Amino acid sequence: MPVRHLYRIALLSTALIATQAFAQRSPDSVTEPEIGQLQDSIQQGCVDRGAERKAPAGEVQEFCSCATEVLRIKVSKTEWQSAVAAAFNGDTKTASDILGKHRDDAIVCKPVQKAPNS
Fold first, then answer.
1. CB of 98 closer than 8 Å to CB of 83
2. How many CB atoms lie within 10 A of CB 83?
3. Of 115 and 51, which is predicted with more confidence?
4. Is the distance from CB of 30 to CB of 80 less than 8 angstroms?
5. What is the rounded average pLDDT for all residues in the chain?
6. Does residue 9 have a pLDDT over 70?
7. Is the pLDDT assigned to residue 118 strictly greater than 60?
8. What's the confidence (pLDDT) of residue 20?
9. What angle do CA 72, 61, 71 make, to 5 degrees?
10. What is the Rg, in whole angstroms, of the alpha carbon atoms belonging to the chain?
11. Comparing C-alpha atoms, which of 42, 24, 32, 38 is closest to residue 89?
12. How many CB atoms lie within 10 A of CB 85?
C-alpha cells in the first residue's frame, strides 16, 4: 500500500476520533450503564463530601446510600438520560438543575435529631 494511502487512513481515523470526542450526546442515546455510572458517581461524591466534613463514616454511608436510592426512584429515566447527556456535553449546570429538582425528596434520609433533654 502506498504511503499516501496510509496517510489518508491515518487522517480519517484521527478525524473520526476527533468527531466522536466533540460529538454532542442526545438524551435518547444514553444507556442504562451510563445512568448507573452517574448514580454511582453521585453516591461516591456524597461519601467524599462527608469524609471532608469529618462526619462519622457509618452515618455518611447510610445517608448517601439512602439519598442515592431516593434519587434512583424519584428521578425518571428521561431525566437521568437528560442529566447524563448534559454532563457528557459539558453542561454541568443543566445536569445539576435536573437532579436538583429532587434534592428535597432525600430529606427522608437525614438522621433524626434528638430533642434536647431527651
1. yes
2. 26
3. 51
4. yes
5. 80
6. no
7. no
8. 46
9. 15
10. 21
11. 24
12. 21
The long-range contacts involving 93-101, CB below 8 angstroms and separated by at least 24 positions, are 99/42, 99/71, 99/75
**What's the pTM?**
0.71
In this structure, what C-alpha cell is assigned to residue 113? Answer: 435529631
Q: Is the pLDDT of residue 26 over 70?
A: yes
pLDDT at residue 74 above 90? yes
Q: Where does residue 89 rank: exposed (0-12), middle (13-18), buried (19+ CB within 10 A)?
A: middle
Q: In the numeric block, which cell numbers belong to residue 83? A: 442529566
- How does DSSP classify residue 17? H
C-alpha cell at 38: 452517574
Grid coordinates representing 42? 453521585
Residue with cell string 455518611: 60
- pLDDT of 97 > 60? The answer is yes
Residues in the chain: 118
For the chain, the distance separating the N- and C-terminal CA atoms, rounded to the nearest angstrom, is 84
Q: Say how far apart CA 88 and CA 28 lie, in whole Å.
A: 13
